[in-house]
C-alpha cells in the first residue's frame, strides 16, 4: 500500500475553523414608570437604519431583552399595543464589533 500526501502552498494544512462572528449586543429592560414593574412579552425590534435589516426578540418575565446584531447603526423600538410603538431616544444606537450596549432601557408611562 502506497500512501502519499501533497502539500499545496495555496491550501492551509490545518483548518482554522469557522470565522468568529462580528457584531455586538443590544440589551435593556422594559418597565412601567411608577411603580417600576417589569413588562414581559413585548416585541423589541432593532432596525439597521442604513440597510433596513430587522432583528427582533421578546422581553422576558423580568422585562429584559438581548438582541445580537451585526455592526451598524440601529433604531430600537418596543411594541406597546396593537400597532403602537415606542422608539428609544436618541433615535440611533451605534454598535461596533464586540460591543455590548446594555443601556437601552424603556420606561413606559401608563395613562
Structural overview:
- This protein is mainly beta and 111 residues long.
- The protein has one domain (24-108): Immunoglobulins (Immunoglobulin-like, Sandwich), CATH 2.60.40.10.
- The protein has no helices and 9 strands.
- The strands form 2 sheets. Strands 2, 3, 5, 6 and 7 form a 5-stranded antiparallel sheet that branches. Strands 1, 4, 8 and 9 form a 4-stranded mixed sheet that branches.
- The N and C termini lie far apart (83 Å).
- The mean pLDDT is 74.
What's the layout of helices and strands?
Elements: E1 24-32, E2 43-48, E3 54-58, E4 64-69, E5 72-79, E6 85-87, E7 93-95, E8 100-101, E9 106-108
Parallel strand pairs: 1-8, 1-9
Antiparallel strand pairs: 1-4, 2-3, 2-5, 5-6, 5-7
Mind telling me the CATH superfamily name?
Answer: Immunoglobulins
- The count of strands amounts to 9
CATH architecture label name: Sandwich
Radius of gyration computed on alpha carbons: 21 Å
What's the CATH C level?
Mainly Beta
Q: Count the domains.
A: 1
SS strand fraction: 35-45%
Distance between the termini: 83 Å
Helix content: under 10%
* Sheet with most strands: 5 strands, antiparallel
Order of helices and strands: EEEEEEEEE
| Shape field | globular
Which spans of ≥5 residues are poorly predicted at pLDDT below 50?
Answer: none
CATH topology: Immunoglobulin-like
Mean pLDDT: 74
Instruction: Report the structural category.
Output: mainly beta
